[in-house]
Amino acid sequence: MTQTLPHWRRNIYLFLTSQFLSGITSMVVQYAIIWYLTKRTGSASVLSFATLLGMIPMVVLSPFVGPFVDRLNKKLLLIVPDVVAAIFAIILSISGTVQSHFPLWLVFVSLFVRAVAQTFQMPTVQAIMPTMIPADQLTKLNGQLGMVQSANMIIAPALGAFLFALIPINYLILLDVVGAIIGISILWAVRIPEHPVIDDPVHVLSDAKFGLTQLRNTRGLWAITLLGAFFTLFFMPAASLYPLMTMGYFHGTVGQAGLIEVVFSGGMLAGGAIIGLFGNWQDRMKPIIWSTIVLGIAFGAGGFLPGNQRGFIWFVALNAVAGIMGPFFNTLLMAIIQQSFPPAELGRVLGVLNSIMSLTGPIGLIFAGHLADSIGVQKLFIIGGVGALFCGVMMGLMPTVRSDDQRLQIKLKQQN
């Protein structure tokens, strides 16, 4: 690490600031679009399809994005997707201005493009983090990155619900353009260390196979990846229908739908703060396993509540608990992955891992709308909770998973 201690701290916090300011406007727009679809259609199938479009790029493109993350200029990989998403926001805004309603096909195209942009940006940020900070600060800084993302998710729904009531949706969408300008301006001042470019040409299939092989050779992480795919299959259908659960089952308002998002994200912020302050656990698999179990219980319990305002109050409390548990799995697991592979390989490994964990999401979403319309949206929350609980118990029962971080710590000590 060539940077002095004060320099890397200034650099990483400037980077986190850019992620916060650009992310919040993008999320306000994302929530506004989903609430627009919920109010206009009230259809579980439409919401499931919108979420499906958001997941397809992650599944299909992630294995092939990794090789480019390892080779190309990472700053540009963060900037170009923001520019493209802003252009489509302008197109959607103009369309909504000249017509009384957005064409649904154009809304879906816009959501798809935003998802493609995120597919490039997420592994890029994950690959950048280990190069900008000392190794012994990685878990804590990942926790602080999680806090930034959680803060976005706290502010964005509340701000989005407020602005959604005041500003026509066709103008509200232009916040995406403002966010892109702010984020790019700050990002130019951030120093992102670049590893030597791999001179070999990109071979997407062989590079994806390389990432898969590296991941499979790490037995504990491979098992967690497969369990994560199972988790997504059961969890994602219900997660895509949060607005319908609030506005349909509990007969709530857009403001209450925003409140649920704020509470869940507030829990995530609290969980991220705990990790950021006390994140140097000797064995990170224990909090990962227990957080998944508690998350499953809290999420599934929401499906047993009565469909009235009293039930909604309990739903708020359960989502606060579920939110606190979320960062323990995501943040701690990402720190383990980042320390398990060399930086020059990380993009390819993360591309494959993100794809596999997301692969089952579209499968669940294909059936989500029909199931919600047939058996009730609340039943999907019970199914999602049981799936998460099963994954947590399985991780606790598998020796290769339980001891994965312990083996990693021994390996890192031997290398030092």
TrEMBL record:
SUPFAM superfamilies: MFS general substrate transporter (SSF103473). It is found in: Cell membrane. Gene3D superfamilies: MFS general substrate transporter like domains. Residues 11-402 form the Major facilitator superfamily (MFS) profile domain. Its main location: membrane. GO terms for molecular function: transmembrane transporter activity. It is a multi-pass membrane protein. Keywords: Cell membrane, Membrane, Transmembrane, Transmembrane helix, Transport. GO terms for cellular component: plasma membrane. InterPro entries: MFS, MFS_dom, MFS_trans_sf. The chain crosses the membrane at residues 12-37, 49-69, 76-96, 141-165, 221-242, 262-281, 288-306, 312-337, 349-368, 380-401. This is Major facilitator superfamily protein.
